[in-house]
Each structure stands twice: as structure tokens, then as C-alpha cells.
Amino acid sequence: MGRGIAACLLANGFHVIGFDTDRRKRTSSRPHIENALAELHRRKLLPAKLLKSWPERYSTSGILHRAAECSIVIECVREDLTLKRSLFAQLDQIVPATTIIASNTSSLPITQLQRERIHPERYIGMHWGEPAQIMRYLEVIPGELTSADVVETVRTFGKSLGKEPTILHRDIRGFLSNRMMYAMLREACYLVESGIADVETVDRSFRNDIGWWALLAGPFRWMDLTGIPAYAAVMEGLMPELSNQKTVPAMMKNMVAAKGEGISNGKGFYPYNKTQAKQWEHDWVEFTYEMRKLADKYGRS
Predict the structure, then answer these.
(1) Tens digits of per-residue pLDDT, 208-245?
(2) C-beta atoms surrounding 245 within 10 Å
(3) Which domain CATH number covers 288?
(4) Per-residue H/E/C for 216-249
(5) Which residues contact 197 (CB under 8 A, 6 or more apart)?
(6) Do residues 182 and 163 both lie within one domain?
(7) Helix (H, G, I), strand (E, B) or coil at 179
């Protein structure tokens, strides 16, 4: 995700310092970014001038103190509250008070991350989508102590990156899109574990229904388009029957215990050989570009 965010920033003319303690990751970031930007240029989404200039605007470092040079720091470490808070404690001692510090957390409340910070008002959530250099998606989440000026600055910054920023009114675990997605994932697991359908059938049903309209219309627009009273009537009987399980589904625990990682190691809810894994990665990128075209057309209220 960090490499994709760097590519997005570079594609829009910004200077970027990529930090990682792992030298191999720092080294591998450059060809990844080069390929991503070349593809944006090939699809006429990146001017030749910016494609040519990005190498001189990008550097990497294993020394966190270089963050002092930045006006905004975007954190992309793993989803670990202790790790993130430790990193922020270090940044508090390094960067100027005016530097905005944004977390690309997927679910952790920003209020927890800004607690005990020297300048908590500058901490904010920036939740990106993958591939970050293509998608228009960006959630902006203020914590309880985030200043209005920081929210507005990050909103403007997001728009300058070609995003369509979603600004939450208040902090909540999981934010918007993940709360909706994980409710769907919980129900999908429940349907499989209950013997209603297998994984492939659930995927097919979802793809041919929700996947058919979801880019054109969000849930509220879809109800407008297809008749609100019918949804209210269905909710009456269906809501009590939906899963409200509070723990991780057994099939998820079993998959993790079996070292299932998905296409990265060929073992997931579906099996993949190397060719199949690469094909799915390729198809996802191609599909994302096609979605970008439609999002540019319909990405407005």
C-alpha cells in the first residue's frame, strides 16, 4: 500500500521520501513505482513531464529523522495499535509542530492513535484503497482532537491527488466502507458455515447482483432507483435473521491457521498456481482502470 500511495503522490507532482527499516523493501519500491507510473502514462492518466521527473522527486531512507523534511507524513505500518503509537511517539520528537501526521489504518479509531501525543490536533486518518495510484477512493477521518484546519487541508490535499475524499463527521472504528464490507463478509461466512451455499456460489451471487450495480449507485441511491418501500418491507422480516456474530468466523480462523494468504502464496478460499495468481493480479489492475473510467463519470452525488 505504501508504494501505491508513493506512486499516487509522485504522479501528481509531489516530492516523496519513502521510509522503511527493511532495506530490501526500500530497494524494491523503485521498480514497483516505475511500473505503476509507466502504466498510468500508457493509459493517458499521467503527463510525460511528470513521468520523466518522478525519479528526482523520490528518495528512500531507513532513517526516520528525514520525516522532519515533510509537511505531511502518511503512516502505512501493519494494523497494530502498539506499533503505530510507538511510531507516532517517535515522530512527535522529530517533525515540526506544523507537520500533519496521517494514519492509513483500516479500522483503528484515530482518537486512540492521537491520545497522549504532543500535538494531537494534527493527527488524522487517511484510509486509501488499493491500487492507491488508480482508485478515486479516500476516506478522511478526524479524531476527537483533530483540528478543523487539518481536516480541510487533508481534504484539499486528497482532491489534488485526483481523489474524491469522503469526510467522516466523527471517529468510528472501521470508518464507512470497511464497516459495510465487513458486515457483508460476516454474512458471507455465515452462509457458507451454515451450509446454505459454498464459497464459489456465494461469490457468484454477490458478483451478479451487488457487483452489477454497486459502482453506479451506492446503497441509498440504489434504493431510490428500485423502490424504497420494498426494502423497508424486506427489512422487517430479514433483519432479525442476519448474522450478528461477534467473533471471527471459524472458516477465517481455520484459513489463517492453515497459512492461507490468498494469491500471495497460492493458498486461499480458492487454490492458485503461479500463472493463475499473476493472471488474477493482472485482471484486477485492468478491472480497476475500467472502474476508474466509470468512477470519473458517475463519481458524483
Answers:
(1) 999 988 888 899 999 999 999 999 999 999 999 999 99
(2) 13
(3) 1.10.1040.10
(4) CCCHHHHHHHHCHHHHHHHHHHHHHHCCCCCCCC
(5) 191, 205
(6) no
(7) helix
